[in-house]
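Researcher: Please predict.
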Amino acid sequence: MPTDKILKCPSAVLWDLDGTLIDQTIPIIKCYTHTFTSLGYPTPDSNIIKRSLGGPLASTMEVFIEDKDMEEACKIFRNKFPKIMFDGMVVLSGAIKCIKSAYNAKIPQAIITNKDGNTAREVSKFAGFSKYIPTCIGSSDTRWNKPDRRLTEHVIKLLKVSYTNIIVIGDSPTDVNVAQNAGLVAYCVATGAHCEAELKDAGAAATFKNLSNLYQIFSYP
């Protein structure tokens, strides 16, 4: 597919956060490690943690701990993470450029994430996204998680746009599922735990090495 025909000017952009706009892997792995070892579990494999990210908090927890410890583990994680969440966090190259391009073109944007909503908004503000993307919805803001269609519909209603030509930009098969479940199109960057081949196999309409590459066909007048 020719790159000059991949991205037409969308009616709205739904951004994933972790692995797409930011790399918060270091504090996330540190927090999961603290949580599991606090409960007497062995130090987890960081690569397995990274590959498990993208879903709700419990979806990573269940890879490493027993169901009986789930509630306590989530409490430990949610208490610890706000204290360390900016330690080693990186705003990914091209993120601000892409966001500003859409903002200048008056394209509505939202961040939709399985990160805790309050935490996600703190991250968005810290990274400089909130100036251009006031709508940021996370896991604690509704009773749904990605890739549930109802969460996507909720965010689209907040943006007050039609479903026509909305794109989802993310870094994982979960983000592809978000788009597919809502009848939208997903464009993915290989800046998380998944390579371009995996993202294509998952059903992404197009894949890019990073946001800087995507920006080349994402800049609107």
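Model: The first helix runs from residue 25 to 38.
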